[in-house]
């Protein structure tokens, strides 16, 4: 039995079940879930950028890995800081959902159809900046909480809509409430958005075995995106976004950075094997 750490939220548990299924299908490994509450789950009334600190959703889980309570941990890659403490590593990124951001509005209106001054809920600086860039007149309303809470806030806080990761909505079976998908070049996704990451202690003898569930294309794309984030010093408190896709051994990367309040965007294509060099090149062009 492999012991798997997960947060308690329904999305976290669904993502953990996806990894557990893959471990069973590919390697015939059986798992048991261990549940943890993180700081990011507890502090719900304060915007994350005001709490500060990276890895709010993973600290308590890393302690469980260190204590030997669990063997592996499952996270949304997006919530994992680019620089892990040296005992830990991302051993696999087995799967990625739709990386796009989605718009959910109660009246079924598309983003561009909203009335002037419409109120849109998001606590992501990246989403807020890009929404403002698309429509200067809209009002951004900070919202926190898990995906369902944020959806409920449309009504409770009289919002015209919210922006959420399509991946989370789809995994929760809420695809049907999505009004519109933003194109990746108008709303560049967060680095790693939609990808699931498996974390392990470097010293764990299970490391080689678990690494067999890695998906190479997901790893390469998300490594390129996270490399851009490192170079641009982005985190969940900045407007940095990047999205990479692979078609026929070519990698195409689109990225955005906020330079003194102005959004700088770029695109680059190259051989997939050169993903480090290419991601570095686009990041440097956006400084
Ligand atoms: N920041 C919270 C968070 N972390 C991962 C997801 C969704 C799944 C994903 O993007 O991988 C979400 C919710 C959201 O951004 O709407």
UniProtKB/TrEMBL annotation:
EC assignment: 2.5.1.61
Q: Which UniProt keywords apply?
A: Porphyrin biosynthesis, Transferase
Q: Which residues form a coiled coil?
A: none
What note does UniProt attach to the cofactor annotation?
A: Binds 1 dipyrromethane group covalently.
Q: What Pfam families has UniProt attached to this entry?
A: Porphobil_deam, Porphobil_deamC
- Cofactor list: dipyrromethane
InterPro entries reported for this sequence: HemC, Porphobilin_deaminase_cofac_BS, Porphobilin_deaminase_N, Porphobilinogen_deaminase_C, Porphobilinogen_deaminase_C_sf
Residues bearing the modification S-(dipyrrolylmethanemethyl)cysteine: 236
Q: What catalytic activity is recorded?
A: 4 porphobilinogen + H2O = hydroxymethylbilane + 4 NH4(+)
Enzyme class, spelled out: transferase
A GO CC term assigned to this protein in UniProt: cytoplasm
* Residues passing through the membrane, by range: none
Query: Which protein family is named in the record?
Result: Belongs to the HMBS family.
Q: What else is known?
A: The porphobilinogen subunits are added to the dipyrromethane group.
Against HAMAP family, the record matches this protein to: Porphobil_deam (MF_00260)
Q: What is this protein called?
A: Porphobilinogen deaminase
Record the organism.
Caloramator mitchellensis
